[in-house]
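ENTRY TYPE: paired fold submission
RECORD: A
CONTENT: sequence, then structure tokens
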Amino acid sequence: MRAPIGDFSDVRPAGEALDLLPDPVAAAVRHWAGPVPVEQVVFVDTAPDKADTADFVAAYGTGLLPFSANCVIVAGRRGGETRLAACVVPSASRVDVNGTVRRQLDVRKASFAPLEVAVGETGMEYGGITPIGLPADWPLLVDASLVDLPHVLLGSGRRRGKLIMPGKALSQLTGAEAVEGLGR
């Protein structure tokens, strides 16, 4: 099997890589539903020490950067209550936490969630968090530009490996909302 983008030596449908995915991601792949079939979600095996965007594109090709996305966990606070959410933006941009995210979550203050919270609440590894398999009650804010891409390269939930899927599949994930200007 060939990956729809990039040149990877170990490529397989995500459903055949469940043992390489953390439990929440594997469960989401197992129970995948929606207009984009799960067979279009592909796992590519990659080196864990190359998970960060700059290292990844240096090792696997700068041509992947326009298709690469990062998923970050944010914490919004209002009236003593903390609300967690996930934001997916192009890897070459930054999440507009103090503007767009704060307004979308209707909170007074928003910031990146502490590492231990992001890892503990998602069941995923820092540097590999993916929007697939996040807690169902979380808002999932997706930069609208990603939904139009033919393919998006995302973390797999671990630092080892990546997932590739059609951009339009991002909008079918639980809690997903396409947001203009999420990444700047």
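RECORD: B
CONTENT: sequence, then structure tokens
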Amino acid sequence: MLRKARKYHKWLMAFVGIQFLFWSITGVYMVTLDIHYIHGESLAKSEKSKIDLESVNYAIEELTSDYPKASQVLLTQSMGRPHYSFVNGVQGKVAIDAKTGAVQALVDEAKAKEIARYHYALNHEVDKVRLIKTVTDMPAELSSRHLPVWRVTFDQFATPTFYISQQTGAVVAKRHDFWRLFDWMWRFHIMDYDDGENVSNWFLFLVAILGLVAAIAGAVLTYFRVFSANKKEVI
């Protein structure tokens, strides 16, 4: 039994040992960095001001009357000005000024820069601006439900990036290089190298089972080499 335990432990650890190292490295990275920093909360100014409801002249009743197919209606504010954002049937996302009821124009490049600078908490200059309309042009760090969006990147070593909805002007995502590295660390940690969303994939399950068997074999070796040896010395 001792020979079999040694054999299984040696070969199993040779197979899963590298993944154990990856689990350790990725785990240390993910627990060391503050998750709020990873989410990019420090990149944006904190908007603590509440929406001034008295300035909302276009009531929700008017909106539902003018747009009977409206769904997912949300009252929010952009750059301090209240507006409604909602989905209007096949028309898609729509943004309306909550003061006047006027439909907001699509955000152009200049407006995207203005919105990004308004929300950005630091003082770096805008480096690049790009409009993303299709899934084929979309980076993996963004969900397709936000399309179309402006990608505004600032000139800083961590490459801070704001994604701004072309239709509503809302900042829908904040990314930087530490988030991107965290995303890859997560993928290696759960062994899902595609999109990092399947935490119950068969590869992770297989390596976990093999690791458990290797640990049991190691426990058997420990028993025979430590506890059993001590018994022989006492005898």
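NOTES ON RECORD B: The chain has two domains: 2-34+183-234, 41-175. The two ends are 22 Å apart (CA to CA).
STATUS: closed
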